[in-house]
Amino acid sequence: MQISRRALMLGLAAAPLTGCAEAYLGPEVGIHIDEGNFGNPSAHNLLVQTGQLPFAIDLAQRFAAEVPTTITFAFDSARLDGTAIAVLRRQAHWINQFPEVTFRVFGHTDLVGSAAYNQRLGMRRARAVVAYLIRRGVSRSRLEAVVSHGQTQPLIQTTDRERQNRRTVTEVSGFLQSHPMILNGQYAAVVHREYIASATRNPNG
Questions:
Q1: Could you tell me the sign of the dihedral formed by the alpha carbons of 66, 13, 48, 39, in that order?
Q2: What is the per-residue pLDDT for 19?
Q3: Where are the domains of the chain?
Q4: CA 66: distance to chain centroid?
């Protein structure tokens, strides 16, 4: 999955804010920086001013290349099925190798139902993913559930039921600012850390 540098810069506008998990903090990667919501410009400025943004972009590209970032849901449901759980296990495994990195989970719906209901349903889906990742050992302080207005960002433009629109997307959002490596400015060391799966690669190909 190829993600443009510009799209990732825009999508990384907001690092997770403790205690604000239920707030709408802006759209999915590639839309725009939400200047109207508290924290987004400040968080983006922090990444820029500390020199973290290029490293966060690199990690976001790596995550999207190495792990499926999207799961889908049955109609009017926030239940994780077997396929979704298999993907989330891979996400959790990757995330747990990078304890310095923070993530956001965006919830989406199809266009069936009211906008208000779908916004709530999108949040339920995002929270279900966050809850599962926590059960797999990911720290709550590194995760944020965000709803992107439920039905407003369909992948398939249809008013009918469409599973591809009923999804969550997990993305790198930045760095955990309280982590010792980040306090010491070791961003490159985080980005270039060998992923644990490399230890099991077949040296013969």
A1: negative
A2: 36
A3: 21-27+37-58+70-178
A4: 14
